[in-house]
Amino acid sequence: MLSVSNLSLRYGKRVLFDEVNLKFTPGNCYGVIGANGAGKSTFLKILSGEIDPSTGQVSITPGERMSVLSQNHFEFDHMPVLQTVMMGNKKLWAIMEEKDAIYAKTDFTDADGARAGELENLFAEMDGWNAESNAANLLSGLGVKEQLHAKLMIDLSGKEKVRVLLAQALFGNPEILLLDEPTNDLDVETISWLENFLADYESTVLVVSHDRHFLDSVCTHICDIDFSRIQLFAGNYSFWYESSQLALRQRSDQNKKVEDKRKELQDFIERFSANASKSRQATSRKKLLEKLVLDDIKPSTRKYPGIIFKPERDCGDQILRVENLSKNGPEGIPYFSDITFTLSKGDKVAILSREHIAITTFMDILNGDTLADSGEIEWGSTITRSYLPNENSKFFNADMNLIDWLRQFSKDKDETYIRGFLGKMLFSGEEVFKMSNVLSGGEKVRCMLSRMMLFNANCLLMDEPTNHLDLESITAMNNGMKDWKHIALFSSHDHEFMQTVANRIIEITPSGIIDKRMTYDEYLVDEKVKAMRERYYPVVELTK
Q1: Are strands 229-234 and 320-328 parallel, antiparallel or unpaired?
Q2: How confident is the model at residue 152 (pLDDT cuts 50, 70, 90)?
Q3: 3-state secondary structure string, 242-272?
Q4: What average pLDDT is seen over the chain?
Q5: DSSP state at residue 467
Q6: What is the pLDDT of residue 131?
Q7: What is the pLDDT of residue 256?
Q8: Which one, of 173, 123, 179, 171, lies nearest residue 144 by Cα?
Q9: CB burial readout 346-361, b (16+ within 10 A) else e
Q10: Are 163 and 148 in contact (CB under 8 A)?
């Protein structure tokens, strides 16, 4: 078991945590959430011992092992991949190193023999003889090909390193597992593998993630960092979000009778309890939900942007025609070829590809920023486009404040009008005088969304719109796109966003197109789609 008592952390006058007392028990997965800067990653660093708290202490049951997902992608550059994974169990790795050092001696003594015997017993007790095969199985489950297992870490790509470090954290089934953004740079198959792994995991897990689908799939509890406190809630992220919104509505409705409020709460809990009964963590979650009372749920202090797209005119019947579109990358390797489709009214299309550079190139071509090698694109005469590119740095080179930055894209130059769009994206007061060339990644995306809303377009092109955004902005973006009734083509690594927004899936491949009118979840399990992917991709390696 992992517990914290009277934990506080202060930086000068700023208080991140104040007198926090929590217990984290085996068999549960705790999703750590909070606004940007609330201290999510800092809290994990305190638990791991990397940062000392101002007051209080962290306690671990004696004999239990904690494992942490490494954020330093270069730490093991000169180690072989398989050994890097086994180093995740530090005690076992130390035994292996000492044992090998003894056997390498030329002057082997009786004392060495006795020590070697002790080490061999410890090695066997820790299942050391299966260490390599267990490490290899973890790597394969995470999509790291067998031919990479003997390579040095320095020879791997960034995405491959992330998977190896994740395997390192999982290796040896630690009693306590701390994961900070574990789904970054993972594809949907690998994320699904990790979700299943953690759902069956019997130890204690704490995870920080911006992936709502992942949090919903694996979490039995939510640790909400707010009010300089950390409060535990039973249930997954969706339950926490809906309950906090319910509490906010109830607090604002002062005239509503207490009994009516309790009835609304009970109906809400029963609905989520029914959903929980279908999950692997059902029993404990359902019991905890049934114990909730109105006072357990408090409104959050978080602010959600207002992402509302309003088209100036409706689309006509002719939207977009794409005919035999092809584009090659460096050295003539095709990004995609023979792409042919037309759009209809109300299409909200998720664009997929194994290589994201293919999607970015495709989006740039649709927006007229890049030329295709061959093929035709014809937009309807009634269509007006607004584009959110994946790379936005070229928009933020000028030395100007946010009002002037947004004003350059607007027909209406009135400052109050401009401030309205910035305010929707949480730039208010003195924040509107920030210089545009010193913004963070998330602030730049919010500025670009303000720019999109200014255009009043009826067709939205968005390449990874949820990148760099916090959970509040992602949720607001998701809600805004669910309400959007016009044309959208977008890509995203956010599963929930894809599932709840898209009504059509188009996958562009080096050899053709897969085009299906269905939801994202349906697409992932459709047998005909799987067969087409095997035919269209030169090599298909999907890990289950």
Answers
A1: unpaired
A2: very high
A3: HHHHHHHHHHHCCCCCHHHHHHHHHHHHHHH
A4: 90
A5: T
A6: 95
A7: 65
A8: 171
A9: ebbbbbbbbeeebbbb
A10: no
Helices vs strands, H then E, count in the chain: 19, 18
Q: Are 392 and 445 in contact (CB under 8 A)?
A: yes
What's domain 320-536's architecture? Answer: 3-Layer(aba) Sandwich (3.40)
For residues 2-19, give the mean pLDDT. 92
DSSP 343-412: --TT-EEEEE-SSHHHHHHHHHHHTTSS--SEEEEEE-TT--EEEE-S--GGGG-S--BHHHHHHTT-S-
Q: How confident is the model at residue 235 (pLDDT cuts 50, 70, 90)?
A: confident
Q: Which residues contact 78 (CB under 8 A, 6 or more apart)?
A: 152, 153, 154
Determine contact, residues 334/358, Cβ cutoff 8 Å. Answer: no
The phi, psi pair for 166, rounded to 5°, reads -65, -40
pTM, whole model, 2 decimals? Answer: 0.84
The identity of residue 521, as a single letter, is D
The SS3 assignment for 494 reads coil
- Cα→Cα distances 184→187, 424, 452, 467, Å: 9, 28, 26, 11
Q: What's the CA gap between 48 and 177, in Å, rounded?
A: 10
DSSP helix/strand/coil, 233: strand
Which two structure tokens, joined as six digits, stand for 492?
Answer: 């995203």
Q: Residue ranges of the domains in the chain? A: 236-296, 320-536
Closest Cα to residue 243, out of 279, 207, 273? 273
Contact 264, 246 (CB under 8 A): yes
Residue whose C-alpha is closest to residue 172's, from 50, 49, 90, 63: 90
Three-state DSSP state, 482 = helix
CA-wise closest residue to 383 among 471, 321, 325, 437: 321
- Residue 477's SS3 state is helix
Residue type, 101: A
Taking Cα atoms as reference points, which of 166, 163, 151, 168 lies closest to residue 79? 151
Number of Cβ atoms within 10 Å of the Cβ of 130: 10
Residue 240: other Cβ atoms inside 10 A: 23
Q: What is the pLDDT of residue 36?
A: 80
Q: How far is CA 279 from each of CA 188, 244, 284, 482, rounded to the nearest angstrom?
A: 20, 22, 11, 25
> Model confidence at 274, in pLDDT bands (50, 70, 90)?
low
385 near 457, Cβ under 8 Å? yes
Residue 126 corresponds to which tokens in the numbers above?
């820790």
| Residues 243/224, Cβ–Cβ less than 8 Å | no
